[in-house]
């Protein structure tokens, strides 16, 4: 695997996932296993109370430059300006919305979020660090 880094100007063709936020370990950024009371990182062993879990953005995109198609995943706080809030704050907004609306199906609010993300990204050109 090459360790060369560069910039790529490309347009977003599609959003590849519908889950943009994940509970992330504060030490190693791996996905946490979260139940109703506790979280656990299977990679580094970090544990804590579920209410204290932090969240991180993960956006998988199919992009195209003038020559090729690429699958790319964008992680972390570089997405804060696009969403307008941190991943943790967006997660709290989603939870609050579901609670206030009495929504028991957690996927219902994600459909609206997917549409918003697709509107924001698809067809737009960005410079990606790869």
TrEMBL record:
Organism lineage: Eukaryota, Metazoa, Chordata, Craniata, Vertebrata
Gene assigned in the entry: Ddias
Highest taxon in the source lineage: Eukaryota
Domain called Replication factor A C-terminal: residue spans: 9-96
Pfam families in the record: Rep_fac-A_C
GO-annotated cellular components: cytoplasm; nucleus
CDD domains xrefs: RPA1_DBD_C
Protein name: DDIAS protein
Molecular-function GO term, any one: zinc ion binding
